[in-house]
Design goal:
- The complex is a heterodimer of chains A (474) and B (398).
- Chain A is 42% helix and 15% strand.
- Chain A has 474 residues and is of the alpha/beta class.
- Chain A folds into three domains: 58 residues, 3-methyladenine DNA Glycosylase II, Chain A, domain 3, CATH 1.10.15; 263 residues, TIM Barrel, CATH 3.20.20.20; 128 residues, Rossmann fold (3-Layer(aba) Sandwich).
- Chain B folds into two domains: 50 residues, no CATH class; 300 residues, Alpha-Beta Barrel (TIM Barrel), CATH 3.20.20.
- In chain B, 40% of the residues lie in helices and 11% in strands.
- Chain B has an eight-stranded parallel β-sheet. A two-stranded antiparallel sheet of chain B has the order 1-2.
- The two termini of chain B are 58 Å apart.
- Classes of the chains: A alpha/beta (474), B alpha/beta (398).
- At the A-B interface, helix 8, helix 9, helix 10, helix 11 and helix 12 of A face helix 10, helix 12 and helix 13 of B.
């Protein structure tokens, strides 16, 4: 079983002076947050600065080191942290450091198209539940066979975009050429292999950059290389066990990733306790399949590998429909398993509602709330939005699961004060809660209950075609 | 070695660049006795020179041991369908479950049975149906038997889930005898076993299931679903009396799943006739709860919690509730790819969490997920990893 950090363990290695420098009132409160992974132990300044805590600091670093090391790629403020995992399963503890997604670029294209693609990657964003979902790195691939071109491309990228880089080449010469230009930006060196590891190890050490060890399909060599690197003091390591997707090999890829993560967390094998990287972009090497098939496959392979412990992904496709499922799944899986994303039940005003404005009702799943609110705003109507307690679930799930009932809607309306306030009492319930409408009319005397559209995006049309007439006649 | 020399070496180690004129005198002094050391230090000219000095030059081969652990429990195998010899009329039977380790942990044991894909069929044309789905079935929407045939013969589903939506009291409120006609016609049209779905109304579903269980006695079908507010004693008795299987639907709640399982088995439902459905939220709409509840159920079952030892059902169809799957938004890209991919991803999340049986809608999504299930469930791989030029991805031209 995983060793989950306990607050008391952390407390034991703190100064225990309750100095408050970290922003917490007590060391115990700070310890609880560190154990939860919400704050880093480094926030305890006395521990790191005051020489009298030297032995405590040593212990603190040991105690708080996650079984999968956290590795930083890039430099502040654009750095990306990968790994830092403490558990296998999401329900054990919130996953930290969302899987970083890199998109590839080739070194043998001209500066203009290179800059264009890199800037597009950097500025790509998809807004969801109040969060901007983004891509995290650029993977520069050594296609040209010319070290100077590789270095030039790295230089162009670092001058035009802020995203951290992965320098992808098995040639130590090309790698060094690029590192002389961008080595101070802490790119990820990809990769040390069985054949080039000595030279690559020297480069990682010389430029103080994180390094990926690649040993496709051969875990003995992967582990041996990692152990060797550790013994020379190099520990900012990312492991690449190979991403195989052709034929039935995907089953083995999943198997390998799962073994590595379990060995790190449940067997405490330190030599594989590093972030894992997967390369869904390999689907583009397959001669079979058309472009759309490849894009689909790349997307679901990426989702599979993210679910099965990849901390870093390198992708080639850059279409929104390919990336959206992956980005949304990442947003989902990296949430606190104990708390559904929800908003507070109650009455929310949209625009400037008066005593003759309509009332919309919905559940308190955060996504539902944001969507419904946006759609009522799109309808350009002043209204009240009553949010009933659906226990953080979507309307469909909570109605089916009897978590959102007519009683709950009625209770939300009654406690909202709208009963007394409104002259016209018109309530619009979600189309997915249609089955509650009869019971609700009985519970809310004097109210007219309308069933709205099944998807709130149809609210503007509903307002025009139905609601306005109903409000006039009410 | 004197302290001064050590200090000097330390100093040299810290230098990132070495300008020779700065060290001329010392170097001459050192040259006599310490030249090799200094030369080495200078050649590396790196901050980690000291570490590099004691660098391990040879790769010491180690062995990676697969992290196998022991499980005290296993998942029962559930048989769906019965042949004539077994008292039914099906040409083919399907088995699910039987796991002895977490999903696709091949290093422990390859899966005993492949997860199966059911395509949804409705007993009346339902509104709304997402555009890409509707176009796949537009010629059969009025006829559940033709719809089922197309799902099996054209789209390659393992079985169909026939949803008797017309029985919903808030819709047509079709009586059980009437709903039975669609069931009979589907059973005659295809020779694979089927899943019979109700309307979600606990009282009505019980009546419908009671009637249909008797009518299809011995066929070993799947009835979906028993919920916590249903008369569990009555449903367990009728399902077991006529030899069928039952899906117990818990709403993203592991304790409710336990309670359902316990009550149903206490009322006489055999353990190998129970399938648990912890509810599948769409990708982006609560799927992470489904994922975590499924993982917990499966792990608890393997660790010995008998109430949670059951194959899992996943209604990936729910993916179509997500507007990202169907809504026309130009910057999101074409809906005909986006929708199936959304459903595929939703199903994959369930697959990796341990689901054994999928209810799906879009033929392409079903095909992809079935293909993955086949690959992941193979007892032994045909592909040799060392024959794939993985590392070429770095230099490929695309």
């Amino acid at each position: 079983m995983p060793k989950i950090l306990r607050p008391l363990e952390v407390y034991g290695v703190l100064p225990q002076t309750n100095c408050g420098e970290c922003g917490e009132s007590t060391c115990m409160a700070f310890a609880a947050k560190v154990a939860d992974g919400v704050v880093e132990i480094t926030q305890c300044r006395p521990l790191f600065k005051d020489p009298k805590y030297k032995s405590k600091l040593q212990k603190a670093l040991e105690v708080t080191r996650p079984p999968v090391k956290a590795v930083t790629i890039g430099t502040p403020p654009y750095q990306v942290i990968v790994g830092g995992k403490r558990v296998m399963y999401r329900h054990e503890l919130t996953y930290h450091n969302p899987t970083a997604i890199a998109i590839d670029v080739m070194d043998d294209v001209d500066a203009d198209p290179l800059i264009k693609r890199a800037k597009a990657i950097e500025s790509y964003t998809f807004e969801r539940i109040g969060q901007q979902l983004r891509l995290n790195l650029i993977a520069l691939r050594y296609v040209s066979g010319n070290p100077e071109k590789f270095a030039k491309a790295a230089d162009v990228l670092s001058k035009n975009v802020s995203l951290p880089l992965i320098l992808c080449s098995y040639s130590p010469d090309a790698m060094e050429e690029a590192l002389t230009v961008v080595g101070d930006k802490r790119p990820l060196i990809y990769a040390a292999t069985r054949n080039n590891w000595k030279e690559m190890l020297d480069l990682a050490s010389k430029y103080k950059c994180p390094i990926a060890i690649s040993s496709p399909g051969d875990l003995n060599t992967l582990k041996s290389l990692a152990s060797t690197f550790i013994s020379t003091g190099i520990e900012d390591i990312v492991l690449d066990p190979g991403t195989f997707v052709r034929g039935d090999s995907l089953a083995e890829t999943i198997n390998i990733f799962t073994m590595l993560r379990r060995a790190a967390i449940e067997k405490e094998d330190k030599s594989v306790g590093f972030p894992l990287m997967a390369v869904p972009a390999v689907v583009w090497m397959d001669p079979e399949g058309d472009e759309v098939e490849k894009k689909m496959k790349e997307s679901y392979v990426a989702s599979i590998m993210m679910t099965r412990y990849a901390d870093l992904l390198v992708m080639h496709s850059f279409d929104p429909w390919v990336l959206m499922p992956l980005l949304v799944w990442r947003q989902n899986i990296y949430t606190d398993p104990r708390v559904p994303p929800s908003v507070k039940p109650g009455v929310y005003e949209i625009g400037k509602p008066t005593d003759v404005s309509p009332v919309f009702a919905t559940g308190n799943f955060a996504l539902t709330y944001f969507l419904v609110r946006g759609d009522i705003e799109n309808a350009k109507i002043d209204a009240y939005l009553v949010v009933a307690d659906s226990e953080g679930l979507s309307v469909e799930s909570s109605v089916a699961g009897r978590r959102l009932t007519a009683d709950k809607f009625a209770e939300a309306i009654k406690s909202s004060g709208l009963n007394q306030k409104l002259k016209k009492k018109v309530l619009v319930i979600p189309g997915r809660a249609a089955r509650l409408s009869g019971e609700l009319e009985e519970l809310l005397s004097g109210w007219k209950v309308l069933v709205g559209p099944r998807d709130s995006s149809a609210i503007p049309e509903f307002v025009e075609k139905v609601l306005k007439k109903e409000m006039e006649s009410a | 070695m004197s302290k001064e020399l050590l200090d000097l070496l330390k100093l040299l180690d810290q230098a990132s660049e070495l300008e020779l004129h700065d060290v001329t005198i010392e170097a001459e002094e050192l040259a006599i006795e310490f030249l090799p050391v200094v030369m080495q230090t200078m050649a590396v000219t790196a901050p980690e020179a000291a570490a590099a000095l004691k660098k391990v030059i040879e790769l010491k081969m180690e062995k990676f041991e697969p992290p196998v652990i022991k499980y005290s429990g296993s998942i029962p195998e559930v048989q769906i369908g019965a042949t004539r010899a077994e008292g039914g009329t099906r040409g083919k039977v399907i088995k699910i479950g039987g796991e002895t380790c977490p999903p696709f942990y091949r290093f422990e044991s390859p899966p005993k049975n492949r997860p199966i894909i059911a395509l949804d069929v409705f007993d009346q044309p339902i509104v709304p149906l997402a555009g890409p789905v509707k176009s796949a079935y537009k010629d059969v929407l009025e006829d559940p038997a033709e719809w089922a045939k197309k799902a099996i013969q054209v789209y390659g589903a393992d079985l169909v889930s026939l949803h008797l939506v017309s029985t919903d009291p808030t819709l047509k409120d079709t009586p059980p005898q009437e709903a039975a006609k669609a069931v009979e016609r589907v059973l005659q049209a295809v020779d694979i076993p089927i899943i019979i779905g109700g309307s979600g109304n606990p009282q009505k579903d019980l009546q419908v299931f009671q009637y249909l269980a008797e009518m299809t006695a011995g066929e070993r079908l799947v009835f979906a679903s028993a919920t916590i507010d249903m008369d569990l004693d009555a449903i367990a008795k009728v399902i077991s009396k006529y030899g069928h299987n039952l899906v117990a639907l818990a709403f993203m709640d592991i304790n409710q799943a336990k309670e359902l399982s316990r009550k149903l088995t206490e009322a006489g439902l055999p353990k190998d006739h129970l399938i648990l459905d912890p509810t599948t939220g769409a990708l982006g709409y609560g799927i992470e709860y489904s994922f975590s509840v499924m993982e917990r159920i499966r792990l608890s079952g393997l660790m010995g919690d008998e109430t949670l030892q059951a194959p899992l059902s996943c209604a990936a169809t729910n993916a179509w509730a997500a507007r990202e799957a169907w809504m026309k938004v130009d910057e999101w890209g074409p809906r005909e790819y986006r929708g199936p991919l959304w459903e595929t991803t939703t199903a994959i999340v369930g697959l990796l969490a341990g689901a054994d049986m999928f209810m799906m809608m879009h033929p392409l999504a079903a095909k992809i997920v079935k293909g993955l299930a086949e690959i992941l469930s193979k007892p032994k791989l045909d592909t040799k990893l060392e024959e794939i030029d993985y590392s070429d991805w770095v230099s490929m031209r695309v």
